[in-house]
TrEMBL record:
InterPro entries: DUF503, TT1725-like_sf. Pfam families: DUF503. It comes from Alteribacillus persepolensis. PANTHER family: DUF503 DOMAIN-CONTAINING PROTEIN, HYPOTHETICAL CYTOSOLIC PROTEIN. This is YlxP-like protein.
Amino acid sequence: MIGAAHCECYIYQAQSLKEKRAVLKSITARLKQKLNVSVAEMDYQNLWQRTAISIVAVNHERTMVEKELHTALDMIDSMPEIERTVTEFEWL
């Protein structure tokens, strides 16, 4: 089972693309280190305060994939530098 969570987020404190990318690099590194997921920025690469990231997990059980994705989303929600707005799930 492959599960993906597509999130649109705001980084309100970013005043440049460099600051935005530093925040994203920190977030993606934390997610990859602590969870068994892949993370990538998918849209809005040239906007300072807006981003769209996708988080993907693979496992033979859907419940395990759901648990990993929800844990990743909880980690994003606990980070004060980013606010998650729209989230969509996709299952393959």
